[in-house]
Amino acid sequence: MNRLREQLGSPRLFIKRDDCTGLASGGSKTRKLEFLVGDALNQGADTLLTHGAVQSNHVRQTAAAAAFSGLACQAILEARVQSAPAEYAESGNVFLDTLLGAQLHHVDSGTNMDAALETLAAELQSAGRKPYIIPGGGSNALGSLGYVECLRELRDQCIAQGLKRPHIVHATGSAGTQAGLVAGAHALGLKWPITGIGVRAPQQVQEARVFSLAQRVLGLIGHGVALPRDAVVVDDRFIGEGYGIPTDGMREAVRMMASLEGILIDPVYTGKGLAGMIALLRDKKFEPDEDIVFVHTGGSAALFSYRWAF
Ligand SMILES: Cc1ncc(COP(=O)(O)O)c(C=O)c1O
């Protein structure tokens, strides 16, 4: 990303285009769903069940994966962002969810989403259906395997493009992306720094969640060497007032990326993730010989529901 680099006077900047993974405008969930939908099909499921915030990219991609695989999809949407205009509830990912054929259930903020999903699964089972539960964000050990694969792909691409000291930066929410990347780097013996920019939980909570999930991922792939705790780094300073609530840094990052690189990022995840990366660059927090690799985890479909924020 040479124009962004010139603007910031930074080390070399690269982008991993995981927004180009396919499934109804792409994003990180495609990699997780590859494993989760495979498991659902192996188990003979006929319906994918999941949950997320109203503008969940994960729900939109799960709905697309279900359509693609000939499965039904039901999703529970939590009204996590308060006092947003009507377009937030109707446009962007919500509009796409319905186009993709998902059946949506709306619940209040603070609902126990996992319990709600279990209840819905029990109802469907008693009606003779075979539901398969996908956790929020697709972030269990199986789904996170998608980001072990991503790390392996990145390793090959970084070697091919001559990156000597890659430093990966990305947005972290339900933790599966970072857990997979960290587990993948550890399993491959790479000491690459991976910085997760938090979008919801405080640093300690998020680091503990990522660390625990990364350990389960390593267990799943049969890697016995203990993961050092300091392999997990989360910076929570760019969340602002809360999940999905716009910040000035996010607005600047979305505008810079669009106008300098012609790339759309999103207001909830990658916008705050890139805002974090820009702030770290301005504060000279990276070594001058590091190559910064931003993982674009998708989400631009949500932009249309956030026009008011710009
Ligand atoms: C666009 C986008 N980026 C990043 C994330 C965060 O990834 P994870 O939930 O694996 O931490 C999400 C998750 O929903 C997302 O939709």
Features:
Rossmann fold; 310 residues; 11 helices; binds pyridoxal-5'-phosphate; alpha/beta; four-stranded parallel beta sheet
What would you call the quaternary organization?
single chain
Domains counted in the coordinates: how many? 2
Which series of helices and strands comes N to C? HEHEHEHHEHEHEHEHEHHE
Count of β-strands = 9
CATH fold description of the largest domain: Rossmann fold
- Indicate the mean pLDDT: 97
Shape: globular
Main β-sheet, in a few words? 5 strands, parallel
Going by helix content, strand content and strand pairing, the class is alpha/beta
Unreliable stretches covering 5 or more consecutive residues: none
Please work out how many helical segments DSSP would assign.
Answer: 11
Indicate the CATH architecture of the largest domain.
Answer: 3-Layer(aba) Sandwich
Biggest sheet strand line-up: 1-9-6-7-8
Bound molecules: pyridoxal-5'-phosphate
Question: What is the helix content?
Answer: 40-55%
CATH class of the largest domain: Alpha Beta
What percentage of amino acids are in beta strands? Answer: 15-25%
What can you tell me about this protein's structure?
By secondary structure, the chain is α/β, with parallel strands linked by helices. It folds into 2 domains: 2-26 and 140-309, Rossmann fold; 29-138, Rossmann fold (3-Layer(aba) Sandwich), CATH 3.40.50. The protein is 45% helix and 15% strand. It is built from 11 helices and 9 strands. The protein has helices at 2-8, 29-42, 57-69, 86-90, 92-99, 113-126, 141-160, 176-187, 203-220, 248-261, 270-282; strands at residues 13-17, 47-53, 72-78, 103-107, 131-133, 166-172, 194-198, 233-235, 291-296. The strands form 2 sheets. The chain has a 5-stranded parallel β-sheet with strand order 1-9-6-7-8, sandwiched between helices. Helix 7 (141-160) packs across helix 8 (176-187) and helix 8 crosses helix 9. The longest helix is centred in the middle third of the chain and has 20 residues, at 141-160. The chain is globular, with a radius of gyration of 19 Å. The two termini are 23 Å apart. The relative contact order is 0.17. The mean pLDDT is 97. Pyridoxal-5'-phosphate binds next to helix 3, strand 6 and helix 8.
